[in-house]
Amino acid sequence: MYRISKEKLNDLYAKINETSGLYIPVKRAGEVNYAVWGEGKEVSLETLKTVKSPKSMFFPQTENMMKFKTDGKNIEVIDVREQFDERRPFVLFGVKACDYKAIEVLDKVFLGDPVDSYYKMRRETTTIVTLACSRPEESCFCKVFDVDATAPQGDVTTWLDAEYLYWQANTEKGEALTALVQELLEEGGETEVATQQAQTKAVIERLPFSNLDLSRFTPENLNALFNEKEWEEMSEACLGCGTCTFVCPTCQCFDIRDFKTNEGVIRYRCWDSCMYSDFTLMAHGNSRTTQMQRFRQRFMHKLVYYPSQYDGTYSCVGCGRCVNKCPQNLNIVKVIKTLGGKNND
Amino acid sequence: MIEETLIPKVGVITDVRKDTPDVKTFRVVGTDGKKLFQHMPGQCAMVSVPGVGECMFSITSSPTNEEYMEFSIKKCGCVTEVIHAMEVGQQITVRGPYGKNFPVEEDFKGKDLLFIAGGIGLAPLRSVINYVRHYRDHYGKVVIVYGARSKDDLVDIEEIQTEWMNEPNIEVYLTIDRPQEGWDGHVGFVPAYVKELGLDPNMTAVLCGPPIMIKFTLAGLLELGFEKSRVYTTLELRMKCGVGKCGRCNVGDKFVCKDGPVFRMTELDELPDEY
After folding, report:
1. Would you call the peptide bond into A327 cis, given omega within 30 degrees of 0 as the criterion?
2. B209 near B116, Cβ under 8 Å?
3. pLDDT under 70 in chain A at which residues?
4. What digits encode the pLDDT tens for the residues A51-92?
5. Chain A nearest-CA residue for B259
6. Residue B179 has pLDDT above 90, yes or no
7. CB atoms within 10 A of CB A212
8. What is the CA radius of gyration of chain A?
9. In contact, B60 and B126? CB cutoff 8 Å
10. A–B CB contacts, 8 A cutoff, strictly below
């Protein structure tokens, strides 16, 4: 294990930036989000939850997929993925354990057959440096989903305390990054990291949602859960604003659309939300006509459908963003408590 | 550069056939004049008009047709309206094939088959019926029941009357909803006709059509003694990617684009009622 004094972090960022783009939590206009690092940017590793998750690094909010040139009756399809060849490798720095787990959840979708090449190209050229949590807050419930906030995976794992950032490489990519910044690192930190981990774990145990019981959310209970009467009451206040889906690190749904430019048609994809009424709208009807159905879809997908499709892995990582951001104070914790059975009382 | 399923191929429309007042069948080949890709009966393709949109359609031609693919498209939305205005020579984009096909080799072989279609529901069935006709001796008895609102709404009626109805070992029963001048065939809704025909319940049945027709026809088949596990149908939901990633056609733990569109009725019973 290595460490680097906090005063030297700027040198670390600058060194990484020599060969790779660096995406890191940056404070701008009072909000912290992942952004490209540059001299003078206000990095905030201490911020527990960026407003948006780092999923946009691999699955951008909007991305151009291809172009079409039309000439009379003829069409030419232009593959715009060549832009990836010229793209610098990236380092995604400061990813929390929950958000890292969320990337693994997205990997199952986008790297599963057939591979999504847009996602894969971004994923392959990125080195992920995770950062352990030392100050979890009340809205965190990652423990419920077997996430260890004190020991995130990734290519490099780091821990931060008042004086140092501690550094441990986990993969070949991580070793390569470590070699690049070696001159800035010194050995040491095992004791400090172990102490911090023990303290943080004790805090996590006491968090109000840390012991939610998920045992009822199984594929066998799919229809029973779907038909629960409580969905009506739980969803009554839902505005269908989609905020939960946009801040969610695992929400994967997207739209594909075209827009016409002077240089032809650009086909792009963008995040979409199952909370919106036109998500399932077809020329001849709509399979989900009420907000209750849309609300139910989102939580059933996270807690039952996705696990049924992917070996029992839940598509929620307990980051708590929806707990903090829903304007109507609706969230997955309430759904788990309401439908999860008596162990959640 | 690795292959990307979302990037389509360019196809050329080589024939347009007006089947009914609102259904046209489009014949499509690649820019090299050859078939764009191979498929199996029941599989679908994403057809797009760049700048307008992309939609999923069943491939109505049989895989045994080596020259081209056909799509029977009903004019009912913004993309299909533009497609309907297209003429021979117009290029479109196509990607696929997507979804699970009818189990023509795995389950249908050697069985007696009953095909029941309503309206544009004939489009996915035409592919499997012509596949079965091509390998006729691999299958038992073939019975086809097809209905539409009027005689003008029967899709592909020319092929049905000149080819299917003239084959000695295929029984074809046509019906229209209301009496009409120039129609001396059966009049009545498909579910009632199916019951009237007193069909052999040991057949494997395939149903395609509007949800209301499927619901009542299935009830009729069960009354006749058909087994649910031997009745197949297809689902249709909004789709964007076609490969189980965009999330739109999700029902329960299935994606219609990837796990469907072909389902056994017993599989549908296990899904939440939201399709």
Report:
1. no
2. yes
3. 84-87
4. 999 999 999 999 999 999 999 999 999 999 877 656 679 999
5. A309
6. yes
7. 18
8. 22
9. yes
10. 123
User: How far apart (Å, rounded) are the C-alpha atoms in residues B187 and B189?
Assistant: 7
Strand order in the sheet with A74-79: A74-79, A62-71, A264-271, A254-261
Cα separation of A119 and A110, whole Å? Answer: 7
Residue A144's Cβ-side half-sphere holds a number of Cα atoms within 13 Å equal to 28
Res A284: pLDDT = 80
Evaluate whether A265 touches A259 at the Cβ level (below 8 Å).
yes
Long-range contacts of B194-199 (CB under 8 A, 24+ apart): B194/B116, B194/B145, B194/B220, B194/B221, B194/B224, B195/B220, B195/B223, B195/B224, B197/B145, B197/B173, B198/B224, B199/B114, B199/B143, B199/B224
Rounded to whole angstroms, the Cα distance separating B61 from B65 reads: 7
Residues from chain A that touch B53, judged by Cβ atoms under 8 A, are 257-258
Task: List the Cα angle A165/A171/A177 in 5-degree steps.
Answer: 55
**Collapsing DSSP states into helix, strand and coil, what is residue A185?**
coil
Tokens 């990836």 locate to: A84
All structural domains of chain B, each given as residue ranges with its CATH number in brackets, are: 9-98 (2.40.30.10), 113-234 (3.40.50.80)
Structure tokens at B22: 């609102």
- CA B263, CA A125: separation in Å to the nearest integer? 40
Confidence (pTM): 0.94
Which of helix, strand or coil describes residue B4? coil
ipTM of this predicted structure: 0.92
Residues 18-57 of A with CB under 8 A from B: none
The answer to whether B50 contacts A258, with C-beta atoms less than 8 Å apart, is yes
